[in-house]
Structures are given as C-alpha cells and as structure tokens.
Amino acid sequence: METVVRMGEASASSSAGDTLACIGLGSCIGLALVDRAKGVAALAHVMLPESSQPDPPQPHKFADLAVPALVDMVLAEGASRMRLEACLVGGAAMFQFGGSGQDIGQRNAQAVTKLLGEHRIPVRATATGGSKGRTIRVAVGNEMSITVREAGGSEEHLLGNVAAGKAALVA
Amino acid sequence: MTTFSDLQLDALRELANIGSGNAGTALGSMLGKSVDISVPTAAALPLAEAVAIAGAPDELRYGVVVPIVGDFEAIVVLLFPEEDAKRLCGIYGIEPSTPDGFSMLGEVGNILGTNYINVLAQMVGMELEPDPPQVVADMLGSILSTVLIGRGEDVEEALVLDSDLLVEDENCSLSFLLLPNHGGIKELLGRLGL
C-alpha cells in the first residue's frame, strides 16, 4: 500500500510491500529515516526550518520538531537507534520572492541536516537544492529502496537494501 | 479552524468574479478570441488540501507566478496543463517548453494578473502592483507547496480564490489562483467593512 505523506505530515511502516511517498516536493524536505537491516522506515514532509510556538498542532511541519518526532516514530516500529540512516530530498528554490531574500528550501535542508547531526544519524544520500520539484518514494521491507524522481524525469535510485550495499562494496 | 465567515467568503468570491472577468476580457482582446470564465470559488483550506485544489500533486503543469505587492500582498498563480499550454502557445506558433514559450506564458500571467489586480485595487482603494512573472514547468504539488510556503511564514490554512478560464476556439483552459497572505486578507476585508 502506498501512503502519501502530505505537507506537515509523517508516517512510519515496517510492513513489507508498503511504500511511503512525498509527491511534488518543492522547497519542502522529504526526510526518510530507515533501519535497512530491519526493513523499517519513516518519512516526514517538512515545510519550515523552525517552529514559532512550543507545541504546534502539526509538529512534523518544522525541522526542529520533526526530526526528534520522526526518530520516535521509527523506533516505535521496531527500528534500532544504532542502525538509523537518513535520506533527504527536496529543498529546491523554484521561485524568487524577494522580501526577506532568504531561500526557504536551502534553509530547510540546512536545518534538517543540523538536527540529524545533533541526533548522530548519518545522512546516506541527498537530492536537494536546484530549481526542480521532486518526489521521494520509500519501499519498506527487506527489499528496501529509496528513489527520487524530478518533474518530467525518471526514477533514480538513492539507497538500496543492505545486501545490495554489500554487493556494491565487493564490486 | 476556518477563520473566515460565509459572508466574508461570499464577498471574496464576488471580488474574484469581477477580477477574473476583467482579466478574461483582457486576455481575450490580446488573443483576439473569446474567453469564458467559470464561477470562482473562495475557500480557506488547510495547506495540505490547498495544494491539491488543482489536481494530483505529480501532474505536470506550466506555472506562472506573479507576486503582488503594495497595500496588499498576494501571489497570483496560473496553471496550464501541458496540452493546454501547447494550444495557447500554438496560436503564435511557439512551443511552450522553449524560452519564447516561457516568455509568452509569462506575458499571459502579466496581463491576467495585472487586470485582475487593477480592478480589485480600484474597488477597495488600494495601491497594488505586480512583480515580474516567473514561469516554471514542474509538478503541480511542487509549484503550489512552494508558493504557499512562499515567504516562510507559518500558517495553518490558505485562502484560495480559484477561477477557471477557457479560450473557446482553442479549447485551452487554465486555472487562475489568487493566494493572498494573511495580513493582506484582514486589510482587504477591513476595507470592505467586513
């Protein structure tokens, strides 16, 4: 079953055959946390770098709250803290809106990366920046894979299962 | 959660009706073709739903974004399905995916946005002007989510004024969205005495 994770939402799964997806990311970040050995994954659709209030209705909107909340979600599905790895997709600069002049996509990517560093979660692959929208899909289970697709482009591989990773190392 | 009353949404719908009528007439005279306009909708939606207002998030769209600045801040977004963009640019023998195509779509955005905004400005006595249009070809979800987050404000819901325009002889339709920012809407409704 494919679960579409919409703006400000998050979802986790340990069921083989499930897919988690953020479709049409622009300046938002699709943040995937995975335990490949267990086949467990969680995906958040992060919109902004920082929360403006302590206890907002949608914590996954904000990088600073989404990262710890997503760690809890993926652990609750049976992931091991030690094996967690992250993938980041999105954070594009599609338009210039003047005003503050700050690139919200880049700030989102930086905020998520910083938070992952504080939680000591290694970032294994990223597809961020640029000016094109992207879709991230996480296939859950033993055949875990994370793919990214740009608008009008083809599906590209970001991260594979543990066995595939080992095979790549041997080769 | 909706922060707008039915009366306020009715008033905004009427403004959208007049604005898109004016914009459609201007586009019609530019193209020399008759342009039909649907009855607009005005709705305050949670962001995740606002993104889905014009179709599935992975559908490809040509998007023209026209920031509106002045007494009232808003963003005008035109969305063309690929085939419709081809038909519209085809009137001038242009392919939409080329620099000329982007320029043509940007000009359409300029004309529609300016004429929509001008009549709005006159009615409520505000100074408004459009910034230069920006054109992209991308996924619908990417375009709308990025526009809605725009300046990086933390908002729970978005007010969307949505009209559909149809260029009759060409069977070309496009969505016209006006996305006012929150402060702007309060100001606008205040001027209307609502």
CATH class of chain B: Alpha Beta
How many alpha or pi helices of chain A? Answer: 3
Question: Greatest chain-chain interface?
Answer: A-B, 40 and 29 residues
CATH evolutionary superfamily of chain B: CheC-like
Overall pLDDT of chain A, averaged?
A: 91
Q: What fold name stands as the CATH topology of chain B?
A: Chemotaxis protein chec
Computed CA radius of gyration of chain B, to the nearest angstrom: 16 Å
| N→C terminal distance of chain B | 19 Å
Give the radius of gyration of chain A.
Answer: 15 Å
Beta-strand portion of chain A reads 25-35%
Task: Describe the protein in words.
The complex is a heterodimer of chains A (about 170) and B (about 190). Chain A is an alpha+beta fold and about 170 residues long. Chain A contains three helices and ten strands, in the order βββββαβαββββα. In chain A, helix 1 packs across helix 2. Chain A is globular, with a radius of gyration of 15 Å. Chain A starts with a strand and ends with a helix. Chain B has a single domain, classed as Chemotaxis protein chec. Chain B is built from six helices and eight strands. In chain B, strands 1, 2, 3, 4, 5, 6, 7 and 8 form an eight-stranded antiparallel sheet that branches. In chain B, strand 7 and strand 8 form a beta hairpin. The longest helix of chain B has 26 residues. The mean pLDDT of chain B is about 90. Chains A and B meet through strand 3 and helix 2 of A and strand 3, strand 6 and helix 5 of B.
